Amino acid sequence: MRDDIPSSDAIIVSEYFSEINILEYFNNTKIFIGYSNINYKNRIDDIPLKNDILFFLHNYHCNRLYFFSEFYMVDYETGIIIKYEDFDKFLYYNSKYFEDK
């Protein structure tokens, strides 16, 4: 995986949440892709060691665009992909998804 990350255009953050050190292998910005069925805000609040990629994105606003150029959410039920202007909007609409359930 270490060799694949530099050549990838995107990273899918779903059931497995990588530690922050995955960012060391980024040689360019990536597209962040998440799924609507994962409650990312709850995950951020429950991170025990505060060292995974979601914690980084939530807490280090000024560094986000160095690593991620775009943020997308895939609706788990329909497959529709929605682009958000930043990670904060992604989290907001992801949280709304769970409020509506």
Number of domains: 1
Instruction: Record the strand order, biggest sheet.
Output: 1-2-3-4
Count of DSSP strands = 4
- How would you describe the oligomerization state of the chains in this entry? single chain
Shape: globular
Class derived from helix and strand content: alpha/beta
Radius of gyration: 13 Å
User: Tell me about the biggest sheet?
Assistant: 4 strands, mixed
Q: What is the beta-strand fraction?
A: 15-25%
Mean pLDDT: 87
Low-confidence stretches: none
Span from first to last CA? Answer: 35 Å
* Helix content bin: 25-40%
Number of helices: 4
- What is the N-to-C order of secondary-structure elements (H for helix, E for strand)? EEHHHEEH
Account of the 3D structure:
The chain has about 100 residues and is α/β, with parallel strands linked by helices. It has one domain (about 5-95). It contains 4 helices and 4 strands. The chain has helices at about 40-45, 55-60, 65, 85-100; strands at about 10-15, 30-35, 70-75, 80-85. The chain has a 4-stranded mixed beta sheet. A hairpin with a 6-residue loop joins strand 3 (about 70-75) and strand 4. It is globular. The chain starts with 9 loop residues before the first strand and ends with a helix. About 15% of the residues are buried. The mean pLDDT is about 85.
List keywords for this structure.
101 residues; alpha/beta; 21% strand
Structure summary:
Helices cover 30% and strands 21% of the residues.
Q: What is this structure's SSE topology?
A:
Layout: E1 10-13, E2 30-35, H1 40-45, H2 53-59, H3 64-67, E3 68-74, E4 81-84, H4 87-99
Parallel strand pairs: 1-2, 2-3
Antiparallel strand pairs: 3-4
